[in-house]
Amino acid sequence: MKTKNLATIYAIAAAALYAINVPFSKMLLGHMQPTMMAAFLYLGAGFGMFAYSIIAKATTKATPTEPLTKKELPYTIAMVALDIVAPILLMFGIKSSNAANVSLINNFEIVATSLIALFVFKEIISRRLLIAIALVTVASVILSFEGAGSFEFNIGSLFVFGACLCWGIENNCTRMISNKSSIEIVVIKGTFSGLGSLIVALTIGERIPSVLWVICILLLGFVAYGLSIYFYVMAQKDLGAAKTSAYYSIAPFLGVAFGMLILGERPAIQFYFALIVMIISTYFMIKDTIELQHTHEHTHTHTHEHSHGDIVHSHEHTHIHTHIHVHGENSANHDHNHKTMSHEHSHLA
Q1: Residue 125: which residues within 8 A CB-CB, separation 6 or more?
Q2: Is the Cβ–Cβ distance between 44 and 221 less than 8 Å?
Q3: Tell me: the pLDDT tens digits for 116-149?
Q4: Cα distance between the two ends of the chain
Q5: Burial of residue 203, with CB atoms counted within 10 A of its CB: 0-12 exposed, 13-18 middle, 19 or more buried
Q6: Spatial separation of the C-alpha atoms in residues 8 and 248, rounded to whole Å
Q7: What is the Cα–Cα distance from 347 to 308, expressed in whole angstroms?
Q8: What are the residues facing 318 on neighbouring strands?
Q9: What sign results for the dihedral spanned by CA atoms 77, 78, 83, 88?
Q10: Would you say 45 and 186 are in contact if contact means Cβ atoms under 8 Å apart?
């Protein structure tokens, strides 16, 4: 199978694996309280990816990766703290709303991530992405209200909005450490966020359920969070971030389909209006990520040596040259960036 085709399968698999989270979580919430549920979902991701990393090291030749350092500690702490709050809010949202609504409102995470990147990290957002953000917001508002003729706000939607906001901030924190080991990031996220949620659950009086249900939720966490993130990273290696994000945007729609198939849900009429708006917004997102931004990269590696007494140090530097071409409606801007992405050091006596 061609590399690009395999990468596409990875991207779609990542979206599909995350999409099963909402309907299966709604089923399992009948046997476990929300905060405890969030704890074991993340612990499943952390423990599962840790076990996977051990097996991978033992059976294959692992590619060297750069570990996290003290420099990334503030972003790592923020990432863990937000990953404690967000899944707890999501579980309360799932419990208080139907799975189809929750799946679509999850798209609001894109809005939160983009706006935080714009106002806090001063990133440039295109006109098309701004249109997509506005459409996602409109669809989310439609889904936030109860049935036709009712102006009662759906509290479940409010919880999901809160989760998306936390994940929007967390995405920007994770971006600051994204050049480090992806498996290490998932393990840290899952383990420490899961333990934090477990402490919160026990503090507020929630009980640990039977071993059978704990195992089920750990497995769901490993699949829907751990493996999903891993496949996403695998897809990025060959497709790049833009195309991978475009494929991953199908996750909410798969979540709706799974909710209907697994739970037999039949959403209210406003859901279908919101679905049309979400499809249009997703079109703008895909068009923006694939057509407006073309990233071409090539690498150059060189090695130099210097000595300290009897020890010779050989330093290998890998440079990635990135050429980003952003085409507007009336003009074309060309931004050429040169970044040193990785440094590998070997010490020869």
Answers
A1: 114, 117, 118, 133
A2: yes
A3: 888 887 767 778 878 877 887 788 777 776 554 4
A4: 43
A5: exposed
A6: 10
A7: 11
A8: 301, 342
A9: positive
A10: yes
Q: Is 268 left (phi over 0), alpha (psi -120 to 50) or beta?
A: beta
Comparing CA positions, the residue from 106, 103, 99, 89 lying closest to residue 38 is 89
Share of the chain above pLDDT 70, in %: 74
Which of 297, 283, 261, 197 is closest to 189 using CA atoms? Answer: 197
| pLDDT of residue 326 exceeding 80 | no
Give the H/E segment covering residue 274.
helix 269-287
Place of tokens 């090291």: 57
Q: Phi and psi (nearest 5°) for 2?
A: -65, 150
Written as one string, the DSSP assignment of 194-243 is HHHHHHHHHHTTPPP--HHHHHHHHHHHIIIIIIHHHHHHHHHHHHHHHH
The pair of structure tokens assigned to 184 is 């290490």
pLDDT surpassing 80 at residue 196:
yes
Q: Which two tokens stand for residue 66?
A: 């750069």
What is the rounded average pLDDT for all residues in the chain?
77
Q: Note every long-range contact of 316-320, with CB atoms under 8 Å and residues 24 or more positions apart, other chains counting.
A: 316/343, 316/344, 316/345, 316/346, 317/342, 317/343, 317/344, 318/342, 318/343, 318/344
Which residue from 73, 82, 27, 9 is spatially nearest to 262, judged by alpha carbons? 27
Starting at the edge strand found earlier in the chain, the sheet holding 293-308 runs 293-308, 311-327, 332-348
